[in-house]
Amino acid sequence: MSPILIIATIIVNLALISYTVGIISEQRNRRISRFSLSFLTVGVALDVAATACMITGSSHGPFTFHGMLGFSSLTAMVIETSLAWRHRKRSGDGEVPRGLHLYSRAAYIWWVLAYFTGAYLAMSS
């Protein structure tokens, strides 16, 4: 595995940890706290960095099944984090609406699916 892909793997694992902490915090408390918002934001930043490293280090290019899955899951998490920021700005520490609560869970599950698909592909090659 190339050094850039090793770096990408480390970064995407940090993104998984950050997203997980942020989403679990939001799901348990049904609130977007500074704590959960911070972890979601860091997760997005790490995910963008990992994606850039993976594209740079990949010999397959960005338009593969896993690439499309990864782009769509990153997009879902960017939307989720943007909605979380908007909710926090408008409602402070108010309770998360049911729609955002469910979307957060669905976006996270989609992202984790992309994560494990990538891990499977990396281990099988």
Provide structural commentary.
With 125 residues, the chain is an all-alpha fold. Helices cover 84% and strands 0% of the residues. It has 4 helices and no strands. The chain has helices spanning 3-29, 34-57, 65-91, 98-124. α1 packs antiparallel against α2 (34-57) and α1 packs antiparallel against α4. The radius of gyration is 15 Å and the shape is elongated. The N and C termini lie close together (10 Å). 29% of the residues are buried.
Q: In a few lines, what is going on in this structure?
A:
With 125 residues, the protein is mainly alpha-helical.
Give the topology, please:
Layout: H1 3-29, H2 34-57, H3 65-91, H4 98-124
Helix pairs in contact: 1-2, 1-4, 2-3, 3-4
What distinguishing features does this structure have?
single chain, about 85% helix, about 0% strand, about 120 residues, elongated, mainly alpha
Computed CA radius of gyration, to the nearest angstrom: 15 Å
Which class do the helix and strand fractions yield?
A: mainly alpha
One letter per element, helices H and strands E, the order comes to HHHH
What share of residues are in beta strands? under 5%
* Structure summary, number of beta strands: 0
Shape: elongated
Regions with pLDDT < 50 over 5+ consecutive residues? none
Number of separate helices: 4
Determine the fraction of residues in helical runs and give it as a percent range: over 70%
Largest sheet: none
Overall pLDDT level: 92
- What distance lies between the first and last C-alpha atoms, to the nearest angstrom? 10 Å
